[in-house]
Each structure stands twice: as structure tokens, then as C-alpha cells.
From TrEMBL:
It holds the Pfam family DUF5658. The chain crosses the membrane at residues 51-71, 78-99. Keywords: Membrane, Transmembrane, Transmembrane helix. Residues 12-99 form the DUF5658 domain. It comes from Haloferax larsenii. This is DUF5658 domain-containing protein.
Length: 103
């Protein structure tokens, strides 16, 4: 993996992986917020607990990473971690806004 790839995957891990995970778990557990993603609700049987949400996050990142490896040309691959980083930042910021309104 080139250095730009590594930086984008690091950003994706922080924003999409950690940021969304932490703010979702805090929102659901401490602020009584319902998970907004219907796919996550369906797969977790309602609002996700820390364990089930961690498994869903790991599986989704693994699927995105597998897609990254099969994409050609290599420049198109950067769209995967770039999009995950963007999504993670947006979702984490939205989660923080919702939590702040409830607490």
C-alpha cells in the first residue's frame, strides 16, 4: 500500500470505524437514541449493542477493503477509503449533534 493509501485507510479507520462506533454506542446506550440506519437495526435486531455493532463495523470495513483490493485501476481504489472517511466524518458529526440535543 502506498503512503496515500495508508493515510486514507488510517483516516477511514478513525472516522468511520472509531468515530461512528463510539458516538453510536454512546448515543444508543447513554442518550436513548435509536440507530438511524435500517440495515444496522435489522442486522442487530433493534438498536445495536457494543458487541454486535463492533462485529458489523469489522465486517463492513473488511468488505470495503476487499473491494479496494479488486478495483482496477489503482487510482480508483482511493475512492473506497476516501468515501469511508467522508462518511465517517459526516455520520460522527451528526451523531454528536444528536447526542448534544439529548443530553
Amino acid at each position: 500500500m502506498a503512503s496515500l493509501d495508508a493515510m486514507l485507510w488510517g483516516a477511514a479507520a478513525l472516522a468511520y470505524g472509531l468515530g461512528d462506533y463510539v458516538t453510536t454506542v454512546l448515543g444508543v446506550r447513554l442518550a436513548g437514541i435509536q440507530e438511524g440506519n435500517p440495515i444496522v437495526r435489522l442486522l442487530s435486531g433493534g438498536d445495536p449493542g457494543p458487541g454486535s455493532f463492533a462485529v458489523l463495523k469489522i465486517v463492513s470495513v473488511a468488505l470495503f477493503f476487499a473491494t479496494y483490493w479488486v478495483l482496477r485501476p489503482a487510482s480508483a481504489r482511493l475512492a473506497i477509503p476516501g468515501a469511508l472517511t467522508f462518511l465517517g466524518v459526516v455520520v460522527t458529526a451528526r451523531n454528536v449533534q444528536i447526542i448534544r440535543r439529548r443530553v
